[in-house]
Description:
The complex is a heterodimer.
Chain A: H1 3-15, H2 19-47, E1 49-50, E2 55-59, H3 62-71, H4 73-79, E3 91-95, H5 99-108, H6 121-145, H7 153-175, H8 180-212, H9 216-235, H10 273-292, H11 294-304, H12 306-311, H13 316-343, H14 353-363, H15 368-391, H16 396-423
Chain B: H1 3-14, H2 19-26, E1 30-31, H3 34-37, H4 45-55, E2 62-67, H5 78-92, E3 95-100, H6 108-117, E4 125-129, H7 134-143, E5 149-152, E6 161-166, H8 168-183, E7 188-189, E8 192-193, E9 200-205, H9 210-226, E10 231-236, H10 243-255, E11 260-264, H11 269-279, E12 282-287, H12 290-293, E13 301-307, H13 309-321, E14 330-333, E15 340-344, H14 354-368
Parallel strand pairs in B: 2-3, 2-4, 4-5, 5-6, 6-14, 9-10, 9-11, 11-12, 12-13
Antiparallel strand pairs in B: 7-8, 13-15
Helix pairs in contact in B: 1-2, 5-13, 6-7, 8-9, 8-14, 10-11
Amino acid sequence: xxxxxxxxxxxxxxxxxxxxxxxxxxxxxxxxxxxxxxxxxxxxxxxxxxxxxxxxxxxxxxxxxxxxxxxxxxxxxxxxxxxxxxxxxxxxxxxxxxxxxxxxxxxxxxxxxxxxxxxxxxxxxxxxxxxxxxxxxxxxxxxxxxxxxxxxxxxxxxxxxxxxxxxxxxxxxxxxxxxxxxxxxxxxxxxxxxxxxxxxxxxxxxxxxxxxxxxxxxxxxxxxxxxxxxxxxxxxxxxxxxxxxxxxxxxxxxxxxxxxxxxxxxxxxxxxxxxxxxxxxxxxxxxxxxxxxxxxxxxxxxxxxxxxxxxxxxxxxxxxxxxxxxxxxxxxxxxxxxxxxxxxxxxxxxxxxxxxxxxxxxxxxxxxxxxxxxxxxxxxxxxxxxxxxxxxxxxxxxxxxxxxxxxxxxxxxxxxxxxxxxxxxxxxxxxxxxxxxxxxxxxxx
Amino acid sequence: xxxxxxxxxxxxxxxxxxxxxxxxxxxxxxxxxxxxxxxxxxxxxxxxxxxxxxxxxxxxxxxxxxxxxxxxxxxxxxxxxxxxxxxxxxxxxxxxxxxxxxxxxxxxxxxxxxxxxxxxxxxxxxxxxxxxxxxxxxxxxxxxxxxxxxxxxxxxxxxxxxxxxxxxxxxxxxxxxxxxxxxxxxxxxxxxxxxxxxxxxxxxxxxxxxxxxxxxxxxxxxxxxxxxxxxxxxxxxxxxxxxxxxxxxxxxxxxxxxxxxxxxxxxxxxxxxxxxxxxxxxxxxxxxxxxxxxxxxxxxxxxxxxxxxxxxxxxxxxxxxxxxxxxxxxxxxxxxxxxxxxxxxxxxxxxxxxxxxxxxxxxxxxxxxxxxxxxxxxxxxx
Lengths: 445, 382
């Protein structure tokens, strides 16, 4: 069998993999990336100078040379009398960084002391990151399912966050005295503003694609720059929306009643279980929308087989615009959550949630429910790398490498599966290719 | 000193080791205590050599946590300057430090809390670099009243926070005076020259903000105070890390007659230097002596408006070591304590005419004596 045939066969097996098999593949990819990352940590640990070794590889190890004789001196003597027992390592090499400690901090550090205190601040950071990535992830996923590559989620998130932050600075203060009632009005209003603004901003490249045949990858990328620059322009000038009290380019702080209530968590942790619950509801809602409604059916079929969908009566142009709008609205709501939960105002320099969302979506196989898990993995990595930076001497760039490795390894099988699904014909042997896009129907899992 | 021996030793012994690890050891440092490298040959040179480093009493080590600004290390100006401050302090005192580089504003609070809440080690000082950290530090400092914090470039009004700010406008005023004098005469040195018939200078800023506007205001005031007829071109490129944009902005200034361009734009300024070399004109650096940090452009860098972030960090650490760190106070570093200064370029400094230098030092004296007041807002420059 030639190489290309074997590759084709492999890709076919990947495309036909069941949900359980895919889970196993992802898990083993995760373990493999940790193993390779550990080798890199060891290598980097030899390339720096430090006073004492954080980790030592010795043959035979400490257990044989020190622990065992200490525990049962008699046995050791009787088994190997005459000083034959190795009292010192034959080979030993020290490393500046301890890979076990690094991964311990990266994964468990992100959870903090979750068993004793599930409300600790590091876990709060993880939840906050997860919440926002759930929105951007599902935004990308919706567009992907309609076969649209929405790279503009970052821009839509910025526009949503900006709109929420700016409008609420005018609406919220007069209502601040109303207490809980104000929150009930302002929170949905803020989210709605973000959603509408993000959706409108995404509808533009959607319409350009549908009616002018413009490539959405290019238009959405460029609109990201437009969004960031407009935001900078508006919040860096006091005559527009800049907070005159602050050096930073930001809007005036919103009153607390306009923000997500912190409930169980402490206010300083910038997280809200309400926002997290809302994100979960949105994911389930989008899943339902895609799987069980006529709109979702139109969207999915035009993603799988545009020609067949159109033949079946789907208005392709309208579907493109509406799925882009939906995707942008979700991103915009993510931006609103970022403002209302994390910052409390709008500030330039929004983190790359939109671009991370692309990876989250690929990781989740574009399944809205999977987005939740993928976003959590991302949240853990983001929050954990903060713990690693503070708690160890490992340089931040190395932590970035480890994070990237994990994501690359876990996402690649899904990525190849999607490519295979799109370009290959890998029906199960003996199974006819269905008119709704062949074996691509498997992606509904 | 015996560091070299140790490396040789590792090289020699690595061959016995596992194949995969041998390659790594060959090119490297690695831990310098005996633990890692002992072999059957039972050489023990390196164990004795390092014991001095590790046996000093752990208890009086001062631990400092550094939270850098979002530009991160390697920016050749602001963060690197702060890092050289902590490195100097670590050399002079018994100080251990841990560094972290947040990549967005929303992470500041988390990093600050991580250091403040840490018990192993217990940080004696958390040093927050950059004005963007002020908002989150206001909240964090109130939540950790026992923890000492330092903030550079902004003020936080909490009893446990020492604030360090600079009078950048004063230093910028001096380089403005320098530029105004040189553009009015025929001056050539290194790779650049000015034309006496054109009296025109430029300012390239990074991202527009009140902080960078202090540089602009001081520069303009210095130029105008020297000669009211000089034209000043101003451009903000919108980024601290876009050398191409910096180069384009500066090129258009040079092409429309500017002799000297002052930049306050971090790494964007590298493009300004590039443009100065292309056009055979001059530039003025910022934050550090850039004729040293960007020495390939030393033949066009007249001077640098140095901002001693390292002094701020060093002073705070020193105070912490000596047990007299003063929270709740704002230290303003200006010309008088060399917090900001006009430092002449390594290569061109000696060629600047003496009377110009005298004018600059007169201006410096006049500001320190309070005779000249320098505006902080460009719109206040007439």
